[in-house]
Amino acid sequence: MKRTVSAIFMAMLLTSMLYSAFKIMPAEAAGTIYIRADGSIDPPTAPISRDGDTYTFTGNVSDGAIVVERDNVVVDGAGYTVQGTGTYGSKGIGLSGRSNVTIKSMIIRYFWEGIILEYSSNNTISENKVTNNSFLGIYLSESNNNSLSGNNITANNGWAGIMLEFSSNYNIISGNNITANNECSIRLFSSSNNIISGNNITNNLYGIWLWRSSNYNIISGNSITNNVYGIEVYSSSSNSIFHNNFINNAQQAFSSDDSVDVWDDGYPSGGNYWSDYTGTDVFSGSYQNETGSDGIGDTPYIINGQNLDHYPLTVHNVAITDVLSKTVVCQNCSAQIDVAFTNEGNYAETSNVTVYANTTVIATFTDINLARKESTTLTFNWDTTGFAKESYIIWAYVDPVANETETADNTYIGSGITISMQGDVNADSIVDIFDIVIVALEFGHPPPPIVDLRADVNKDGLVDIFDIVVVALHFGETS
């Protein structure tokens, strides 16, 4: 028997060693790879397979680049990496004079410019990770009607994560995560009629920069957060900027004196959310002179004398953020329950909170007032008299306030509480040594704090001889 076991062990060990020695590693190539105008791959040994007009990576490309010379193709990185050395002028992916090319699902890093489109139109750049390039992440020059979507563009160290210049018009930049780039997230220079929407723009020097005759662009639905400058508009006009969230930027917005832009979408659609807006929301209507709030500030948000958001969006949002309780309580006893209630909006609010055990109301709090960004804890003792010995889900709900649109966080489902007989600390339907052990392990606390709250059987905040006595008096009982 021992000999058989030894043989099996040696066979497994030999198999593992052979696998380690001969396992197939993904192909990797160095140098520039071309997709030629005739559809061929040059060099033919490059880790790219072709199926018609779709080219799919089968390995990484190190110290190299991809140049596409053919229209109407899809280049699918399949999650592989194109990596350079950051040398001046190097380009990860190059398209010049190209149309209807898709570049997707690859990692492009350590080039001077990650992806560059020159004189190119109707191309799609999507779902790529473009990171740690020395000058620009994605660069468009004299390129129109392209789509840049769903890319993760981070930590590029030069001018911008995305840059459009020299009349790169009618492009769409949407749904990208553009963070921690050295200078600018998105920079437009002399480029117009572009759409910039739904992007996460965070922790850059400039969030969005419109520069010198970048006109008639639409900037909407972006989250522009924790940048030094949220948006800067310089010598550019007739841009529409609305439904963006400008949150905690050192300077939310700057516009030069020769720029005149539109900073809202009219009433009742509204303008932008500004985290430093200090106006009220008491009135409604296009002139904000009708009774009743409407989720729009009563006074404009002022960028400068000729650039105003006439209808700044306000946030009304109350939430239940936690429900805390013991996990076991004896029948005909009481259990302390703590409900964390937060005003996450930027206006004082008054609302009501209801707490349930399954579908039964066990507590109500009415007319709770909270200042903006204020939190409080609502504490009560639940008397379990009349409740059956079983498990209950404890959850809380806060009534929505006027003009609240984010209501998913108005409900919070806490942990369950099991009602058991007295002394049955672990709720296993018998009072035995295991219940005493739970109490003994916490005996004398606090200090330090009680970790297992079940041990405080009589709920006096201490684990002591009185808790042991409760268990002992019911020792051996079953239910």
> Helix share of residues?
under 10%
Mean pLDDT value:
90
Rg over CA atoms, rounded to whole Å, is: 32 Å
Please mark out the parts with pLDDT under 50 across 5 or more consecutive residues, or reply none: 1-26
Total helices: the number is 3
When the domains are counted, the total is: 3
The beta-strand count equals: 42
Distance separating the two termini:
50 Å
Question: Which architecture of the largest domain per CATH?
Answer: 3 Solenoid
Q: Beta fraction of the residues?
A: 35-45%
* Major β-sheet profile: 20 strands, mixed
Question: What is the chains' assembly state?
Answer: single chain
Bulk shape: flat
Helix/strand/pairing category? mainly beta
* CATH-defined topology of the largest domain: Pectate Lyase C-like
Write a brief structural summary:
This protein is mainly beta and 479 residues long.
Descriptors:
479 residues, mainly beta, Pectate Lyase C-like, Immunoglobulin-like, 3 domains, 3 helices
Overview of this structure, please?
There is one protein chain. This protein folds into 3 domains: 28-309, Pectate Lyase C-like (3 Solenoid), CATH 2.160.20; 316-420, Immunoglobulins (Immunoglobulin-like, Sandwich); 422-479, Dockerin domain (Type 1 dockerin domain, Orthogonal Bundle). The protein is 8% helix and 43% strand. The chain is built from 3 helices and 42 strands. It has a 20-stranded mixed β-sheet that branches. A 10-stranded mixed β-sheet has the order 3-4-6-9-12-15-18-21-24-27, with no helix packed on it. It has a 5-stranded mixed β-sheet with strand order 36-42-41-38-39, with no helix packed on it. Strand 33 (301-304) and strand 34 (307-309) form a beta hairpin. The longest helix is centred in the N-terminal third of the chain and has 21 residues, at 2-22. Residues 1-26 have low confidence and may be disordered.
